[in-house]
Amino acid sequence: MSATAHAGKTMKVLLIFRSPEPRTVAKAILENSYPKELLLIDIPLIQDALEYIEREKTPFDLIFFEHESSTQALMKILLTMRGNAQVIMCSSNESFFQGMEGLDGAPEFMLTTAIADSFGKILKKFSTSGKIPELPATDNEAYITINPHTLMATAPLKSDVYVMMGQGRYVRIFCKGDDIEQADLEKYLEKRTVVLFFIKKSDSAEVLQNHANQLQALADKPVVTTAEAEGAFANSSEFVRDIVSQIGFTPEAQAIAKNSVSVALKSVGSNPKLSVILTDLKGKKGRYIGTHSFMIGMVACAIAHKIKWVSAATYQKLTLAAFLHDIALPGEDLARISSLDAAAQSGMFSPEQLMMVKSHPVKGAEYAQQFNEIPADVDQIIMQHHERPNGKGFPRELSARAVAPLSALFIIAHDIVDFAETNPDMTVESFLAYAKSVNLYEFGQFKKVAVALAV
After folding, report:
1. Distance CA 26, CA 15 (A)
2. How confident is the model over 30-54, as pLDDT tens digits?
3. 198 DSSP β-pair partners
4. Are 14 and 53 in contact (CB under 8 A)?
5. What are the tens digits of pLDDT across the range 311-355?
């Protein structure tokens, strides 16, 4: 079907969600995307939805459902009754997607936690390819989303804050200058089931610059604790990731990245100790991308110090690469993928999602190259951070000897942080023993770093 075949048509959607929170998110995104041309049928149970389809014969453009409210047999029936509708299925259980392998007309898969990040992107993809009605041009582009953590970090607010109440109508809930607290957000997040906050795009530069200034003030303190640095780094990485996907890597966003690095390096000092940082890793829980990126940067700096690759420039390169390395990914489920083959075999991810994962090192390197002033090698570290010593990494499947020295160090730091997640009592010795048992770092710069690390 051509991209113009749906032009001007009403978007007909069948939403099948028993859980109220993901249903609210999905409805908000749909109403934001199609403020006028939307027919939304909301039915909590798949049994009732099947009866509705059979009775009404409505030719839906999209069916979006969660597996928690259904059985696999009923889902197979739904797929046979879909007509020409595109189908998206979400679940909070990753293993459930494996049971859908091989089904005729298998739907797009999405983790329930990724709806806010991914649903709008899938709508845009379907619309661009002509599979659903064209997304209408609306005033919604004047607003951008901002996450609750960022709102708290930027108080007092530098812009008005809005929620969307349906049909593209935005309502102001906080005013510029308000000094909000967590309880102020929770009354919207919990009682009113609002999960998305918005600011005007025209206010974004001031909001970003204010955040960058707050980070600089933190970096200028005589002492920055690890907890302060981790919180600031994690919040900022989420903020920049969300903003970049909507308005690009602006100079203000670049300032946030640079100042986040300054805060992290202030906390770790000029002599980062790997044993101290590994102790901090034990039992570490947090927002995956932000906290994970912070710990990778700190571990990488500590490895560099231990193996005598000591310089302020090296620490800055490694920490900035950590900040940016997953910035092109929309959600944690994709950021956790380390093997494309394993992810493909799991059946939990669509081809488009796998391509997004494969290409994100390239996209992250492109972001790094947009900096006005950036140390050499940062883009290369990001480009190579998913290459593997056995030559089976991505995006280029480089051999161990083709991976640059700092990239090899960064990859080992990434491996240590991943290893610590499942081995909370790990030591450098236990990690190196594991690596040796599977012949992990036998060639190229990987071997040089591993040997030096063992001394």
Report:
1. 8
2. 877 787 788 999 999 888 999 999 9
3. 145, 162
4. yes
5. 999 999 999 999 999 998 887 888 889 899 999 998 888 888 899
pLDDT tens digits, one per residue of 192-237: 445 678 999 899 999 999 999 999 999 999 999 999 999 999 989 9
pTM of the model: 0.70
Q: What is the CATH number of the domain that holds 359?
A: 1.10.3210.10
Side-chain half-sphere exposure of 158, counting CA atoms within 13 A? 18
Q: For residue 161, what are the domain limits?
A: 139-201
Output the domain CATH number for residue 85. 3.40.50.2300
Are residues 17 and 155 part of one domain?
A: no
